[in-house]
């Protein structure tokens, strides 16, 4: 199976990223390109450096060395809110946000925060507020959460809480969305539905990069896979190429070469 053709210039590129915590090198000379017409995945064993790489890309950690460009412009070292304003947002392995708010309230706050950040509300007022409500309704319907809009976030089942976190980030109208363990805690019977929802998000024009330990989920939903171990990218390719790669099988799946 060949990777789908790219559309030319990558949306996001990293070059030579390096990050160490004391004597522990978490990210070691990582260079990769993310093309918007592929769902990209990042896999690897615990401690491989995947979440640290996400943290660097989204501004929650500062790289010791290396460069990041988004849409051809450097974003290395920018604060998370500056990177978000440019269109790069993320979810977290453990959902964050507003646990005592209802799902609806959480989305309204997320949407309004982004609107203030981007200056949307400064001159358009009520019209933009109404647009936020319409967008929230559409997102909740698309993610199958409409019936839970009045439920406090901390009362949601684990899988629904992950979807609510995804909905909150979609309110920011991202160009690139990084998903950290979206399948963790999701009922196995709902994984195929989650895969289809992620494909729907991608089809709507949002570029995606995913970390997840559920390998069957990753290989099903992704178009292209980067494998990390010990802070480095050790392999990349299509899901079929990744599954057949002896080095990947050895370091990630625990198989002999």
CATH topology of the largest domain: Rossmann fold
Assigned CATH architecture of the largest domain: 3-Layer(aba) Sandwich
- Compute the separation of the termini in Å: 22 Å
Structural class: alpha/beta
Task: Tell me the helix content.
Answer: 25-40%
Mind describing the biggest β-sheet? Answer: 6 strands, mixed
What labels would you give this structure?
single chain, 257 residues, alpha/beta, Rossmann fold, 2 domains, six-stranded mixed β-sheet, four-stranded antiparallel β-sheet, 10 helices, globular
Task: List the SSEs and their pairings.
Layout: E1 12-21, E2 24-34, E3 39-43, H1 50-57, E4 65-70, E5 73-74, H2 80-85, E6 88-90, H3 103-118, H4 121-124, H5 126-142, H6 158-170, E7 176-180, H7 191-203, E8 207-211, H8 215-221, E9 224-229, E10 232-237, H9 239-244, H10 246-251
Parallel strand pairs: 3-8, 3-9, 6-7, 7-8
Antiparallel strand pairs: 1-2, 1-4, 4-5, 9-10
Helix pairs in contact: 3-5, 3-6
Describe this structure in words.
The longest helix is centred in the middle third of the chain and has 17 residues, at 126-142. The strands form 2 sheets. The protein has a 6-stranded mixed β-sheet, sandwiched between helices. Strands 2-1-4-5 form a 4-stranded antiparallel β-sheet, with helices on one face. By secondary structure, the protein is an alpha/beta fold. Helix 3 packs across helix 5 (126-142) and helix 3 packs parallel to helix 6 (158-170). The two termini are 22 Å apart. The model has no long low-confidence stretch (mean pLDDT 86). The protein has 2 domains: 8-87 and 174-257, P-loop containing nucleotide triphosphate hydrolases (Rossmann fold, 3-Layer(aba) Sandwich); 99-173, no CATH class. It is 37% helix and 23% strand.
